[in-house]
Amino acid sequence: MSKTIFHLLAVTCLSIGFGSVLVAAERPASAPNIILVMSDDQGWGDVGFNGNEDIITPNLDAMAGNGVRFDRFYAAAPLCSPTRGSCLTGRFPFRLGILAAHTSGLRVGEITLAEMLKKQKYETGFFGKWHIGWVKPDELSTRGHYSPPSHHGFDEVFATTSAVPTWDPAVTPEGWDSKSNKPGEPWKGGFPYMHNGQEAKENLNGDDSRVIMDRVIPFVEQNKNQRFFAAVWFHTPHEPVVAGEEYKKPYAKFGQLRQNYYGCITAMDEQIGRLRDKLRELGVEKETLVFFCSDNGPGDKLANKGVASAGPFKGHKHHMYEGGVLVPACAEWPGVIESGSVTDVRCSTIDYFPTIAKLVDYSFSGSQQRPIDGVDLMPIIRGDSKQRDKDMFFGFRRLHDGVDGKSIISGNFKLMKEAKKNGQMRLYDLSSDPYEHSDLSESQPKLFEMMSQKLEAMETSCLLSRDGADYSY
To answer: Which of 8, 171, 241, 306 is deepest in the core (most CB within 10 A)?
Structure first.
């Protein structure tokens, strides 16, 4: 390693928290309930509050209007599993060893939001698509391993390992082309949901988002008089994308692909509205911080067909371009977040952990110290902070396919390596070129070299974490 890279690595490590010895404190009385809502493969442009005039999302639009809309919110990776790990840990996926889908499971050495909040006397629940480890103990595969939510601080669990159809989630839908799943047969053997250690076998028909919310609502009701944390991770609109007839009707002028895609998003939006209504019915909406985002850009097939949308941004899922990682996002906390707030400061799924840790006055003890890559979002939401003071690192790796995509955003500049075999290195100024039309890698050689050194230092730091530097044995 060159002296320059070593120096950059040292600076990087210090900036993300190496060496900080912090101690957990008692939860403040003002600490809110926390709900993290996430959709799956929903593009930046696939929601009304980002300007889509075709998809009906009144509840998400109301949530964004009553809180803050994030115009530049990034998933930590351009695909599902890595981003999910980042949401719970505040760390870049490459630190976690989760480089792509089904390539690993969340390590028990990681400290999750659920574990942190349990120490602060929160009740914890997970609902929906886990995808950072298998949820069934006898589920065997050549990739990944058993690492269910219950191993990571969640008490109430209603979870699937990975994708299910967005309508009738236990049944393979008509028209689904798969060697292992035939239409009408059980989806991947049937009964994909595990509910507190047992296969769920009832109330699995119809809209999958409703199936999930039917388990969330009782959890919220049971914990209305104490603090709770819920991760609600929908499968919508990940393939197989299917909508019920009543949800397709508003889109009758469109073809079947759009009817199903738009319809299942509207069905999910309805359930988000149901959750918001329940918080108000119970009188806890002012005590509850609700975040919403997607896990990555729009799915490849539907984006290529012009159905799913990254808005004006280039690329989609599995791309290191902005369209692969920029996602729709908003947050609501009545009485704390000013209605109609909007920020274009770059924010990310890695920011959930440090934001919530600050709100509940929690920090690591000496034996648990480790790099936290995110920032506290509240100063950004309040408008006190106008720019991000930490670099952002993204990655997607499947070396057996020749895929080694990665990028770093430092200030307004982004250096990226395309996530494909023999992918090219490209450099963009996102302040003047947000849609990534003008590659500066040749015209700005000094800047390219500096960004390359930052990228190498960041990746080296993540490799140290991945190899065990952050865990005590």
So the answer is: 241
